[in-house]
Amino acid sequence: MSLTFENIKKTKSNLNYPSQLFINGKYQKSISEKSFENISPIDGSIVNQVFFAEQEDIDLAVSKAKETFNKGYWSNLSPGERKKILLKFAILLERDRLELSLLDTIDMGKTINDTYNADLPTSIDNIEWYAEIIDKLFDDISPSSKEYLGLITKEPIGVVAAIVPWNYPLWMAIWKIAPALITGNSVILKPAEQSPMSAIKIGSLLSEAGVPDGVFSVLPGDGPITGKSLCLHNDIDCVAFTGSGEVGKLVLQYSGQSNMKRVQLECGGKSPNIIFADCDDLDRAAEASAYAIFGNQGEVCSAGSRLIIQKDIEKDFINKVVQLSKKMQPSDPLNPDSFAGAIVNTEQLEKIHKYVNIGKKEGADIEVGGNITMKETGGCYFEPTIFKNVKNNMKIAQEEIFGPVLTTLAFSNFEEAVSIANDSEYGLAAGVWTNDINKAIRASREIRAGTVYINNYEEGVDSTIPLGGYKQSGIGRDNGSQALENYLQVKSTWIKIT
């Protein structure tokens, strides 16, 4: 289906807004019937009332998940059988692609172009990739002496709680649930309270695909109550979390306070994007650099938010990015031609504006932007913003703003560039632009980041590439075969041969 105003309008007019918990294969209200307002940042309107999962609901979902896991309804299915069901789920995601895209756009304000043409296709690819790899993985036999046989096998870990953020509501959920489900685990998904609807919707799609009742649940709610309760629950075996470092540290504490459950974290970044003067296509580098921070309204963990430019080209390169930013202004997220949409909510909008004011007080200069815009819509919109004359010890260069705010820094030589890049508590991603392959390889080896992009920034990344961070950007990896390790236990069986 092509993305046009006509089919967007038609689908939206018939759209159902999911609001209930999904437990044991069916939708239901929370036991207390507590709910919260779901507000769209597009225009500030109340979309629906979403039921709020509290301790009783969590206990019910976890008990069903544990029961179905122990009985083997899903965990004991062969990899090939699980594969067929997940591939059917991918087909259903494609069938409901526009509906799911609209739910995410309405919930968190990102453009329908992004959700329909990026988030949904990559989510479907992720499901298909994990479904296809699962029956091609083999266990091992140790190189023991003739008197013994050592078997090294992998088993599902049990009940997994997937706690996901609002910036890519469905995509980030799929990153967790695809490898967790395909390896035979039961999964409880807690979407961000700002963007719960697509997560709730896929509960019925997984059931339709053939996932047994109880294997998959969706529990909307907030972090301090719903998220914390999941992390402290003694029958949860693993928590997979994407979000802020502050909350990630709490997840680690909750694991220690409960049953020492396994924890996988992806916790944001302040990623450097280094432009060397010998880059042979500065126009392409500028375009990629602008997209790396202004795409998805800057609400990206791995956004290239620190642009580190060699002094020889600093002025001209900043001007290129400034000119590009003028074509990346926010507008109606439901317009398929819009580049950027709304900031997720008023709280995040105010946070971004606060950081802009901090940058000014710190002595940095605004080259372009810096303002809340489109106030007449009732929604949450912020201009693409570029700071120059930034020092790397400034808050705007060290702290994750999570908005369309770019800090630019200058360097003289290779060593200084790498030093600035590594001078951060984060280590999620980095970019390097140079025509010198030796310099590129040296930079990749010396920059402490989970992913280093050479002469691109997040272009063409797919399900085969593991993503995650160094330092306070997290523990473990999403994507690739490495993500399966989050959700599997390794068992050694040592057999005496007589």
Describe what you observe in this structure.
This protein has 498 residues and is α/β, with parallel strands linked by helices. It has two domains: 5-267 and 475-492, Aldehyde Dehydrogenase, Chain A, domain 1; 272-462, Aldehyde Dehydrogenase, Chain A, domain 2 (3-Layer(aba) Sandwich), CATH 3.40.309. It contains 15 helices and 24 strands. It has helices at residues 5-13, 55-71, 79-95, 97-108, 112-133, 169-182, 197-209, 223-232, 245-257, 282-294, 314-325, 346-362, 395-398, 414-422, 437-446; strands at residues 21-23, 26-28, 35-39, 46-51, 140-141, 148-156, 159-163, 186-190, 216-218, 238-242, 262-266, 272-275, 306-310, 365-368, 372-373, 381-382, 385-388, 405-411, 426-427, 429-433, 451-454, 470-471, 474-475, 488-496. Strand 7, helix 6 and strand 8 (186-190) form a beta-alpha-beta unit.
